[in-house]
Write a structure and sequence with these properties.
Blueprint lengths: L1 H25 L8 H12 E4 L2 E4 L1 E4 L5 E9 L22 E3 L29 E6 L1 H6 L2 E7 L14 H9 L5 E7 L4 H4 L14 H16 L5 E11 L1 H9 L11 E5 L14 H10 L15 H13 L2 H11 L23 H6 L5 E7 L10 E2 L9 E2 L1 H15 L6 H10 L3 H4 L2 H20 L3 E7 L29 H4 L9 H20 L19 E4 L10 E3 L4 H15 L14 H8 L8 H4 L10 H6 L29 H28 L8
Parallel strand pairs: 2-5, 7-8, 7-9, 9-10, 10-11, 11-14, 14-15
Antiparallel strand pairs: 1-2, 3-4, 4-6, 6-8, 12-13, 15-16
Helix pairs in contact: 1-22, 8-10, 12-13, 12-15, 15-18
Family: Belongs to the type-B carboxylesterase/lipase family.
Protein name: Carboxylic ester hydrolase
InterPro entries: AB_hydrolase_fold, CarbesteraseB, Carboxylesterase_B_AS, Type-B_Carboxylest/Lipase
Length: 698
């Protein structure tokens, strides 16, 4: 037996040595690695250490063959339940073991019909403040990669990182020719983010809790991103729509403006957006009444009693997250303003001194900003067909007057004289101008003025306009929502299908090319501080020329048209030059009632929840045998299912001994297995040698 054993060992050694020599002859040494060693190297890249502990991400290869490492739902704050609800986030406590960061997380709670996204599509939880980090092998091994910190839109009313397709993000930012680390932040929404019951009182809540989450996430990136191969001194904040406003506000807040180097502002609206101390106060008090935490009207003097208000806060903290979320749904259509930011005060204030003071103190910074050429088309219902049998359009004078007054209110002249209203009506008394009336004052002129402000502060600004119209089915608007037509495109948010994978539809071969070309503009800026490349010259914004870059993809070569002067020239001239001569400089709002929707607020001021339709205040009961989430949305966790109990899993049979083993047969089986493994190893390595990643090296 002893001799037979040595004989078998000798045979194994000789055969394996011969096969190894053959494999080495055909395969370069740099590719000749044992599978076990490759696995160890892979684990070294997947397991990262951050201050609270270790975590393990996922290795992902996209359909375009881009390889990346994704670390999902990295918790950066303690759960915001109990006393932590409505408070600024608390850093996450250390955890033991290795945290699983290989799967997407949850959404923070929100519930509104103001978006085409459906709340029931997302699992929701209050332990929801986290970041996702998308990086690649080059960054993890070499380090020093540029970082982009993305903030989603939704005005602190709705939204989640789950809206974005990881495959798009990896293809656009992590491929080997770009090497950008993409980070997006999941933060609180709605009442959890903006509760404001009385800003004059010293209460156990923090105003703008949702924005505190965003600042907290940025601090985390500054501190921890080197663990994922990022350079903490090359951070770009990037936001779209309300996320763009928050990116702008990050440049103002003393708590955040020195945590990053550059900013990308996409399709923003007027920056301050009703930045007043009592913002969200009406909605917060009304929601408290809906939730049976208050029994007084929203204008009652009792709201000045600290004891009463603190009692309301404790009541709200004892409500389930689902109940609070349903109160938001009940506010839909009430006219109460919910969302955006309030002017705050105190030691933990994000915006001490007010918007005007902070805006004047904006530090020099490099910014890329721009709009879509059609954005919202809010005022398009000014025009109509007087006779549908003829292709003629006419102006609805009543609607034109309404939008003229609304636009003056947004501008900052709510009490403008009748002659000024008539001047606005005359300026926009044509079909091509009328449909842009509200967008001009709310989107286009503020965006131009922001670019000019950055320049005046000693920074550098690049301005663009996205004009591509044939987006078609590349963008899916939402459930039971009609698609945007060519005449309506590019509409607000449609470009995100190409850039960050939001509302992605069916891509044609041209759409895939546009995805690459459009994202390259932003990657260039993130990496180099300028969007230009060897084929596209971008000049810094000059307020005297109002120069901007036109982003379009005409057939056949998809070459972008390049630069023009006079960004929305007529609107800029009218609202920046003529209207100030007629009304004086804009008057910023002082209270929530000055922002707009005055009739609705007046109605709310003299009412309470009992005056609202019954369907608005009804909150469905939660069955005792189900969780809050399951009762409405029917969510479940696949991990809760027991395959063994369902008969899908059979325990392996145990060996009972070694009797009856034929060692001759076993020896030849062993030799055969070694031969097959060696051949497989050689073939695999030869394939790796010839493999090329076309997309990564376009």
């Amino acid at each position: 037996m002893f001799i037979a054993g040595h004989y078998r060992l000798l045979v194994y050694t000789v055969i394996f040595g011969l096969l190894s020599a053959i494999s080495a002859h055909f395969v370069p040494p740099k590719l000749w690695k044992f599978p076990l060693l490759s696995r160890v190297n892979e684990d070294e890249l997947l397991v990262r250490g951050v201050s609270p502990g270790k975590l393990k991400g996922a290795s992902i290869t996209t359909p375009k063959n881009t390889s990346a490492y994704a670390f999902f739902a990295i918790p950066i704050a303690e759960p915001t339940t109990g006393k932590n609800r409505f408070r600024a986030p608390i850093p996450r406590k250390p955890w033991s073991g290795i945290l699983d960061a290989s799967k997407p997380g949850v959404s923070c709670y929100w519930n509104t019909s103001d978006t085409s996204n459906v709340p029931s599509d997302f699992e929701m939880d209050e332990d929801c403040i986290y970041v996702n980090v998308y990086t690649n092998k080059h960054c993890l091994q070499k380090g020093g990669c540029a970082v982009v910190y993305y903030i989603h839109g939704g005005a602190l009313k709705y939204g989640t990182t789950l809206q974005y397709d990881p495959m798009h993000l990896i293809d656009n930012f992590n491929n080997a020719s770009r090497n950008v680390i993409f980070v997006n932040i999941n933060f609180r929404q709605a009442l959890f983010a903006v509760l404001n019951l009385n800003y004059k009182l010293d209460l156990p809540i923090d105003l703008n809790a949702g924005f505190h989450d965003i600042v907290h996430g940025l601090r985390w990136v500054k501190k921890e991103i080197h663990n994922f191969g990022g350079d903490p001194d090359r951070i770009t904040v990037m936001g779209h729509s309300a996320g763009a406003i928050f990116a702008q506000m990050l440049t103002l807040s003393p708590q955040s403006k020195y945590l990053f180097n550059r900013a990308i502002v996409m399709s923003s609206v007027d920056t301050d957006c009703g930045f007043v101390p009592d913002r969200n106060q009406h909605a917060s008090r009304l929601a408290s009444t809906i939730l049976n935490c208050s029994v007084v009207g929203i204008k009652s003097r009792i709201w000045n009693n600290p004891t009463y208000v603190i009692g309301v806060i404790e009541c709200l903290r004892n409500k389930s997250a689902l109940e609070v979320s349903m109160a938001q749904k009940a506010l839909d259509g009430s006219g109460a303003l919910l969302g955006y930011l309030a002017q705050d005060f105190g030691d933990n204030a994000l915006f001490p001194g007010g918007f005007k003071k902070l805006y004047a103190e904006t530090p020099p910074m490099t910014v890329l900003s721009g709009t879509l050429s059609k954005e919202y088309l809010h005022s398009r219902d000014i025009v109509y067909h007087p006779n549908r049998t003829k292709q003629l359009w006419a102006i609805n004078e009543t609607r034109l007057e309404e939008y003229a007054e609304k636009s003056l209110n947004v501008y900052g002249a709510p009490d403008a004289k009748r002659s000024v209203v008539e001047r606005v009506m005359k300026e926009y008394h044509s079909v091509p101008r009328a449909i842009y009336l509200y967008d001009d004052v709310a989107n286009f002129v503020p965006m131009r003025n922001f670019a000019a402000h950055v320049t005046s502060q000693g920074g550098h600004s690049y301005l663009y306009e996205f004009t591509y119209t044939n987006i078609g089915n590349a963008y899916v608007r939402g459930l039971q929502q009609p698609q945007f037509t060519v005449a309506e495109s590019p509409h607000h948010g449609q470009d995100l299908a190409y850039l960050v994978g939001q509302h992605v539809g069916n891509f044609t071969s041209k759409d895939h090319k546009i995805q690459y070309l459009y994202s390259q503009v932003f990657v260039n800026f993130i990496n180099h501080g300028t969007p230009e490349n060897k084929n596209q010259s971008w000049h810094k914004f000059n307020p005297k020329k109002d120069n901007f870059f036109v982003i379009d993809f005409p057939d056949p070569d998809l070459a972008m048209p390049g630069e023009n002067d006079g960004y929305h020239r007529d609107a800029v001239r009218f609202w920046n030059d003529e209207i100030p001569r007629l009304t004086g400089p804009p008057k910023p709002p002082k209270t929530e009632s000055d922002i707009g929707l005055k009739l609705q607020l007046q109605r709310l001021s003299s009412s309470n929840a009992n005056d609202l339709p019954i369907f608005m205040i009804a909150i469905p009961p939660v069955p005792s045998n189900r969780t809050n989430e399951e009762s409405i949305f029917g969510w479940h966790n696949d991990d809760d299912y027991d395959d063994e109990a369902d008969g899908l899993y059979e325990p392996p049979k145990q060996d009972t001994g070694h009797d009856g083993i034929n060692w001759v047969i076993t020896t030849w089986i062993g030799i055969g297995i070694i031969v097959l493994l060696a051949i497989s190893h050689a073939v695999t390595c030869m394939k790796l040698r010839s493999k090329r990643n076309d997309y990564q090296y376009i």
